[in-house]
Amino acid sequence: MNLDDKNLQELFNLADKFGNKRYHRLTPQDFEDYRKFDYWRYTNGDSECETTQESKDWVRDHSDWHCPICGARFAEQGGRTIDHKLPRAQYPWLSLDFRNLWVICRPCNQEKAEMHWYEYEHYMLTHHPDWYLAVKDARPVQLLKTLREQ
Length: 150
Ligand SMILES: [Zn+2]
What we know:
This protein has about 150 residues and is mostly helical.
């Protein structure tokens, strides 16, 4: 695999810089979207996903039987979770941007935690090289571009 770590680090720093800049300009609409996502995902005060018909439909339309990262069957991994490719702790205005969401299994979600995308790619490259290409293919190219433009 021919991958330049330094370049990844530069991209990560750039995305983080623009992310932080944007963070100080959050609008009321950003917070409203953030709140709506919680409702969409955590109705009934339940942290399980797939709890509203709307989110159930979305999860059904955006996943098959296997986790796109590790390839394991969701049924054997504790089910499907909705993950933010760019963590909403850092990018709350992207919490309801569907380009930022994907369905992955619970252990993969827990392992990914609050890593920034490039940090996560680097982590996967070093910890799970067999799964790296699947993650790279899921890179949210458009979103990362918008961060650069802001
Ligand atoms: Zn997985």
